[in-house]
């Protein structure tokens, strides 16, 4: 059974852009695409004429139109589609529970309020157990990767561009994020730029032991370079075909990543899974790049 990629659609131009990106990614990685439209009959408590059968038919038309378009572009694509009788967040979270990734569309302006599901987009990114990819669309059209046809997506390298990944924390903490990024770069046959941003911490933020190690290495930047190389080492061994550029830069992680990904095909960041009294959170770095990145952003949950 093929691994599955789930994409949420609602009939908007943004969701069509997300579906198009999802189909290309599925062809590239040999995944099955499952298209989901969440629709729940909810009579309004206002004097407005509603017709359940008409709305149900419209929901099915959204799926039929999406299926037809994706099949036209990718005749051999493995594809299923369903209308889920529920509100969007729980419907998509259930559908993506065992998926490789969940794909959402976002408008080409504004912030998280621009997701195809409105405020639901932020909830999905913060709560999903799998990576969530936000595909930015301008005027309802996703920025296509140069190798957009099925033949190129199946085996040829994407011309130009690279995958950019933000690496934070220890080898173990960044493993899931780096795995996703290396897989994406390998599938596209493009280089991977691994970025580790750092800033001067308050003296108490580093233990005496850490400060001693940094001192032996000649300062904090060499210390950060060693940490990045250690995190990359097992993945470089597993994906020797991927050319890796390691970049360590002082500054805000969000700003450094956005600068590095200005011409990227995909930007990959992590989201730490943690309990919070305020509910699931995306994290400050993911929040920043989701607001401002012009390329698709993959947010990968990790412990």
Automatic annotation (TrEMBL):
InterPro entries: Rossmann-like_a/b/a_fold, Universal_stress_UspA, UspA. Residues 3-136, 164-301 form the UspA domain. It holds the Pfam family Usp. SUPFAM superfamilies: Adenine nucleotide alpha hydrolases-like. Belongs to the universal stress protein A family. This is Universal stress protein.
């Amino acid at each position: 059974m093929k691994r599955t990629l789930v994409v949420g659609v609602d009939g908007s131009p943004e969701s069509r852009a997300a579906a198009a990106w999802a189909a290309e990614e599925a062809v590239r990685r040999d995944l099955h695409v499952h298209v989901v439209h969440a629709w729940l009959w909810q009579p309004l408590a206002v004097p407005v004429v509603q017709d359940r059968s008409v709305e149900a038919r419209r929901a099915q038309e959204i799926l039929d139109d999406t299926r037809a378009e994706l099949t036209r572009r990718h005749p051999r694509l493995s594809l299923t589609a369903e209308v889920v009788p529920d509100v969007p967040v729980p419907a998509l979270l259930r559908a993506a529970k065992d998926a490789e990734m969940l794909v959402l569309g976002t408008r080409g302006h504004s912030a998280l309020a621009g997701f195809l599901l409105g405020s639901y987009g932020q909830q999905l990114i913060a709560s999903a157990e799998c990576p969530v990819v936000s595909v930015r669309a301008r005027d309802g059209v996703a920025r296509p990767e140069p190798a957009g046809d099925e033949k190129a997506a199946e085996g040829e390298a994407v011309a130009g561009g690279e995958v950019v990944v933000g690496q934070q924390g220890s080898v173990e903490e960044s493993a899931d994020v780096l795995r996703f990024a290396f897989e994406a770069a390998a599938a596209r046959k493009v280089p991977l730029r691994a970025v580790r941003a750092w800033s001067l911490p308050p003296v108490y933020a580093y233990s005496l032991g850490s400060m001693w190690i940094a001192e032996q290495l000649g300062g904090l930047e060499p210390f950060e370079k060693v940490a990045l190389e250690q995190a990359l080492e097992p993945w470089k061994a597993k994906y020797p075909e991927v050319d890796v550029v390691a970049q360590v830069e002082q500054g805000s992680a969000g700003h450094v990543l956005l600068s590095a990904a200005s011409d990227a095909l995909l930007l990959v960041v992590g989201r730490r899974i943690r309990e919070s009294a305020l509910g699931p959170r995306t994290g400050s770095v993911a929040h920043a790049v989701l607001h401002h990145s012009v390329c698709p952003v993959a947010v990968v949950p990790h412990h």
